Amino acid sequence: MENNNTCWTMPRIGDQAPEFRAMTTHGKLNFPQDYAGKWKILFSHPADFTPVCTTEFISFANMQKEFEELNTQLVGLSVDSLSSHIAWVRNIEEKIEWDGNKNVKIGFPIIVDLSKAVSKLYGMIMPGEANNACVRAVFFIDPADKIRAIIYYPLVLGRNFEEIKRVIVGLQTADKHDVALPANWTPGKEVVLHYPTTTEDVEKRCAEEGITCSEWYLCTKKL
């Protein structure tokens, strides 16, 4: 007997991003190869012409330049058709005003996934929430095409876009400086050093300029 649960599996943090080919509002896409050397945010939305998704697309569009400056490509997805995507984008750009924003340009591609092939490949459809629509999934994929973080939201809850940006900035900071980041970290705050392994290592770190160790396992510094 076929195990239907295999349809709803999802890749995990540390996995290589599953490859796929798809049509988008910007033409054919070979993912993730078409964005080689970039960070990627692959995100799904439940449906076109819906209120929460519209506010999210306006938010992503307003921050697109900020993500581009972080070498990050945005890629949207839902199980709607190409004509639906195009009509919805046009409607947002020409008619929608929300939170002081109007005439917002949607400059990133939206994947057409009528077959649900990509949605199932990435575990974006969760039957307990909705059988025929994606939840609000966000996959953070690095330039080596490895999945570095995943966030899921239910249909009724819009995403926090400052948090999405914080995740990208945080991952890039951790990679660049070989550090970890504490709770509620934002750029400019102290970072956390990886665990020391010996008492001598603790003493050495505490002696270094700008490093503070409150205990052997918790050392912080300013970048």
Can you give a write-up of this model?
It is built from five helices and twelve strands. It has helices at residues 51-69, 82-95, 117-121, 161-177, 199-207; strands spanning 20-24, 27-31, 39-44, 72-78, 97-98, 101-102, 110-112, 136-141, 147-153, 191-192, 211-215, 218-221. The chain has a five-stranded mixed sheet, covered by helices on one side. A three-stranded antiparallel sheet has the order 10-12-11. It is elongated. With 223 residues, the protein is of the alpha+beta class.
List the defining traits of the structure above:
single chain, 223 residues, alpha+beta, disordered N terminus
In which order are the strands of the major sheet placed? 7-4-3-8-9
Q: Unreliable segments (pLDDT under 50, ≥5 consecutive)?
A: 1-7
Structural class: alpha+beta
The string of secondary-structure elements, in order, is EEEHEHEEEHEEHEHEE
β-sheet strand percentage: 15-25%
Write down how many β-strands occur, each being a DSSP E stretch of 2 or more residues: 12
Summary, kept brief:
This protein is of the alpha+beta class and 223 residues long. The protein has helices at 51-69, 82-95, 117-121, 161-177, 199-207; strands at 20-24, 27-31, 39-44, 72-78, 97-98, 101-102, 110-112, 136-141, 147-153, 191-192, 211-215, 218-221.
Write the layout of secondary structure elements.
Layout: E1 20-24, E2 27-31, E3 39-44, H1 51-69, E4 72-78, H2 82-95, E5 97-98, E6 101-102, E7 110-112, H3 117-121, E8 136-141, E9 147-153, H4 161-177, E10 191-192, H5 199-207, E11 211-215, E12 218-221
Parallel strand pairs: 3-4, 4-7
Antiparallel strand pairs: 1-2, 3-8, 5-6, 8-9, 10-12, 11-12
